[in-house]
Structures are given as C-alpha cells and as structure tokens.
Amino acid sequence: MLEILFSPETISSTVRMAVPLIFACLAGLWSERSGIVDIGLEGKMLAAAFASAAAAAYFGNAWIALIVAIAVSVSFSLVHGYAAINQRGNQVVSGVAINMLAAGLAVVLGNEWFREGGRTPQIPPEAQFAVFNLPFMSSLTGIPVVGPYLNVISGHSILVYLAFIFVALSAWALAKTRFGLRLRAVGENPHAVDTAGISVARLRYQAVIIAGILCGLAGTYLAVALQGSFVRDMSAGRGFMALAALIFANWRAWPSMWACLLFGYLQAVGLRMQGVKIADFEVPVQFINMLPYVMTVVLLAGFIGKSIPPRASGIPYSKDR
Amino acid sequence: MSSKKLVAGVAVVAILAVGAWWLLRGSQQTAKVGDGKPAIVFDIGGKFDKSFNESMFNGAEKFKSESNVQYGEFEIANEAQREQAIRNFADQGYNPIIAAGFAQAAALEKVAKEYPDLKFAIVDMVVDLPNVQSIVFNEHEGSYLVGMMAGLASKTGTVSFVGGMDIPLIRKFACGYAQGVKAVRPDAKIIQNMTGDTGAAWNDPVKGGEITKSQISQGSDVVYAAAGATGLGVLKAAAEGNILSIGVDANQNYLYPGKVLTSMLKRVDVAVYNVMKAGKDVKPGIQALGLAQDGVGYAMDDNNKALVTDDMKAKVEAAKADIIAGKITVHDYMSDNKCPVE
C-alpha cells in the first residue's frame, strides 16, 4: 500500500499525467485572467494533438510538429477570440463549438489523409522528442533511498521541463510585469483599463494567443511525446480536468501547478490501486477515479474557502455599457 | 440576440430539415436499386480503420470477388446517421442488411421491426427479433489460447491484462486469458487493469501506456490489451519497456515487429462473408462463432515467428483441438458474471 503511494514509479507517472494538465491549466489561467472564459481547452488540445502527430508523421521532426501544433491551436484560439472579443458572443457557446469542431475535424482529416480510421500512423522514434537526461543526475542515482527518486526528475521529454518553466514564467509575468498587471486588470475591470487608454481588445487577444500556444504544447506532449500517434478523442477529458484544477487553484499560477500535480498523482495512484486490498477490502477503482472531481467539490465547499473567478470573466466588453 | 430572432432561426432550420427529409424520402421510394443484394453499414471509423471495420470490409470484398454481386455500403460520419443509413438500405430493398458493431443495435432494432420481410444481421451484439441474425464471438476461447502463449512466454511468472471500458464483454476477454495462463502455469500471477468506466476508456492510449508501465514495475513481462485504440498505447509502452504484448481483434503483430507475441483475432470478416453468402436465407437467431467456426484465433506471421517456439505452438494447437472437441471448456464470464480464476 505505502509502496504504491510513494514509489518512484508512481511519482514519475504523476509527472507524466500532470504535464498535459499543467499546460492546459496555464492556458485557462491566461485566458480567464483576461476575462475570456475558455471551455475550449479540450478542443484546442485535441486539435494540437492531431496537428502535431500529422506533422510529425509527414515531416519526421518533432520540433516542426510542435510549431504546426501551436499554429493550429492559436488559430482555434483566434476564432474563439473573434467570437468573444469582436462579436461579443457567448464565450461558453463558442468554446463548446471549438470542442466539437476539433473532435470532428481531426477524425475527418485524419481519415482523408492517412486512411486509418481517423488515426495517424505511428511516428518513428527519431521524430519523437528525445528523452532529456539532466547532466549531473546519472552519477547520483547510486545514493540509497534518495537515488531512485532522482530518476523522477531526470529522463523526461524536454516538454516536461518546459511545463514547469512556463509555470514560473506565468506566475512572474502575471504578478510582476506591467503586461501582467494590465492583463489582470482587464479581467477584473475592463472599463478602468479602457479609461487609462489601453486597448481591451488587444490585451485580450494577446491572452488568447498565449492560451493557444500553451494548448499547442499540451496537445503535442500527448500525441508526439507520450503516445507517438494521434487517436480519436485522445485528450479524453483532460481539458475539463484542467479547468477543474484552475478553479481549485483559485486562478493562480503556482497553485495551478500543485492542483494539476495532485490530480496527476490521484490518477497515477488510481491506476496502481486496481485490485489492491486494504485490510481485506478491495477499493473500487471507480472510487479512486472520481476522487479528483469529488475533491474539487468538497475542498471548494468548505476547506480552501471561496474560489473567486476574475470579475469580468465571461462578460463581453463594450465601451457603451 | 433577441429571443424572437432565435425562435425564427430555429423555425427556419426545422422547416428546411423536414423539407429535405421529404425530398430524400421521395427519391428513395421511386428507385429500388437494392433488389435483394446484401448491404453493410460500417460504423464510426470507416472501412479503412485498420481494425474492426476494415476487417468486415475485407469479408465483404471477398464475397464480391467470388460472386460478382455488388453490395451496398455506407460509412457513417456521426451517430445520428446509423438509423438513417439502415433505413435507406431497407427502403431500397437491400436484403440482408448488416450492421457493423454493437453500437448500431438500437438503430437496427427499430428499423428491423418496420421491415419484417427483410433480413438483418448485427455483429457483436444480440438483437432479439425474428428477422435478425445476431453474430457474437467466443472471445473467451481465443483469449484462452493467447493466455496460454503468454504463460509459456513469460519468464517472470507474472503477466498482465489491460481492458478498455469496464464492461462484461471485456471481463470475458480477461477471464478467458486468465484461464489460459493458469492452464499452463498454475502459479502465475495475473495483474488485471481496466482503463476506465466511460467510453473515453477506448480512446486513451496515454493512460493505457501508464497502466502498462505500472504493470511492468510490478513484474509483468507479457501484457494483453483488449482496449480498442487505448491498446495502441499499451503495445507502445510494452515495446519500449522491452516486454511482450498481445494485440486484439485484428492482427496487430506488425505494429512492433518482434515485440508483439501474437494477436487475438476476431474474424468479423468471416462473419460478414457468411451472412452475405447466405443472402436472403440468413438464419435468424444467435450465431456464436468460436474456434470451431474459425471465428476467433491467434495470429501468426513473419513478425512474431521468432517469438513463438514450436513447443508453444504445439501446446496451443493441442488445446485448440481439445476446445473444439469439447474436452476443455473455457468458462464464459458473461454466462454468470463470475470468473473461476483470478
């Protein structure tokens, strides 16, 4: 039991499960902090996963795949941005539309291009991201007890390290830079920002573009770094889980990372708990699988206090109101 | 947007849809192109999905090349088209009409009731109507054989299973597999995992890979995936972790040559071919295809030749003959929702 909870494999698995959530959660953070509700994280992640897998299969290069994925994801973001910012449409409706569009388009195009039932061919190993070993780690793994855990830090795809770098960058940029301050202001009180002579639309577009880039990274990690091909609906609800993590983290960067790691940990433990008995009682898998959602509800209901979204989140801005 | 505009919009769309429906219906009733020829409705994924649908397509093509009869076919693009497609074929007089896959059961049931004079067939599901043949497979028998191979190939004495969605059908695979492993290695440990409880569990290769990694860390060195597209992640993680894997439904040996021990074949092509060949005389009721009917089996080709020893093959072939002769009975999980071995 304890072995499962704290083994290096579980922790390593936690990191792999959490990274797509972290990227998506940060995307949601940037978008919602600027006042654009983004329910389309799932769709953008899926579109990026397809784009990256298709590009990797075609060009045979992981970095080109990443660029293509980001381009596709950003273009979906811009559609959402146009609907939400210029047209002042309902942002939830637009986000749902993006989810449906991405799910359908990926399968249709995939079938047309590769004829494998909406899948992409397996990407050859040389077109996947190489495993990145931290330079000084190999000499330290011999240390008892601590040694095996160092493998948790080293030996992941480069995108894993990028995820954590982006957490730090987002936290810093939102809190300490002029751009971040303005962006947060536009999510709280766009009228004040407008009065100060700063373009609300421009700031919000910048935010959705950043969200698009991050979703592009999330999708590429899923398809190219982890699986090595695209499969229909492979994002499997991770975009929505990232949204839950965002609420859980009260729309802040570092807590977002911890929330995603916690969700990743629960998934990793859940996979290993199947069939394990605690004092002659077999824990139902369904129970563990529902934990992230139950925890979000329970903790929000009483323990971490009120989770307050940005005040202007989801409200289209118009000067005359 | 004002609610008036919304109502007007909805009304316009509704009128257009009803109009289009009437037009389409009219045109179909005048042209009876089917005239007793067989037809098949492929499910989502399409006929080139390198799996379930493609296998059925191959069966239909075999029928066509042998009999020179052009069959009707339709690939649905979304779930709403299932009933529409089946009804269109029925309208046009195609007979029999094959619904490819369990997901079409509800649609087929509805249409089959409206056309009692036509014959229908459904693969992988039971629809209890007097004009429907339900084709099911004895997956437990095929899984038993690949389980034996897993038990014989394992060096650690621990093997594992990754299922897709946790439903009785997948437990049937797992149970047959476990019985096969235990038959050749009574002391073997079998780790069984399910990917999830929703439909997403069929399409989550990333999670499938994670499960496989956790099974490897628990000592498994042969893993059997019965999980749809999730299985692709299982096979990948197994190949990367240097253990053997077993594919499912179609022959998946080619995916990682030399790393996939074998694949449990479900011969849906045989099923489709048989129905098309029988034509209007297709027998209603449940048709169970097992080892005896060549409905299930295991895959051997150049990719896994080196992995399967002569001794393994001899033992598996002997068990196959015994199952067909009735000397070995493989327990079917779905008969009582219980499995005699763990």
Give an account of the 3D structure.
Chain A has 321 residues and is mainly α. Chain A is built from 13 helices and 4 strands. In chain A, the strands form 2 sheets. A two-stranded antiparallel sheet of chain A has the order 1-2. In chain A, α3 crosses α11. The termini of chain A are far apart. The mean pLDDT of chain A is 88. Residues 26-30 of chain B have low confidence and may be disordered. Chain B folds into 2 domains: 22-137 and 267-295, Rossmann fold (3-Layer(aba) Sandwich), CATH 3.40.50; 139-265 and 309-336, Rossmann fold (3-Layer(aba) Sandwich). With 342 residues, chain B is an alpha/beta fold. In chain B, α5 (139-153) packs antiparallel against α10 (310-325) and α7 (205-217) runs parallel beside α8 (230-240). The radius of gyration of chain B is 22 Å and the shape is globular. The interface between A and B is medium-sized, with 36 and 34 residues.
CATH topology (fold) name of the largest domain in chain B:
Rossmann fold
Number of strands of chain B: 12
Q: Which ranges of chain B are low-confidence, i.e. pLDDT below 50, for 5 or more consecutive residues?
A: 26-30
Mean pLDDT of chain A: 88
State mean pLDDT of chain B (0 to 100 scale): 89
CATH architecture of chain A: Orthogonal Bundle
CATH topology title of chain A? ABC transporter involved in vitamin B12 uptake, BtuC
> Could you spell the SSE succession of chain A in H and E letters?
HHHHHEHEHHHHHHEEH
Q: Mind summarizing the main beta sheet of chain B?
A: 6 strands, parallel
Structural class of chain A: mainly alpha
Identify the overall geometry of chain A: globular
Q: Count every helix of chain A, treating DSSP H or I runs of 4 or more residues as helices.
A: 13
Strand order of the largest sheet of chain A: 1-2
CATH architecture of the largest domain in chain B: 3-Layer(aba) Sandwich
Give the amount of beta strand of chain A, in percent.
under 5%
Tell me the greatest interface.
Answer: A-B, 36 and 34 residues
Reported for the largest beta sheet of chain A, the result is: 2 strands, antiparallel
- The tally of domains of chain B stands at 2
| Widest sheet: strand ordering of chain B | 2-1-3-4-5-11
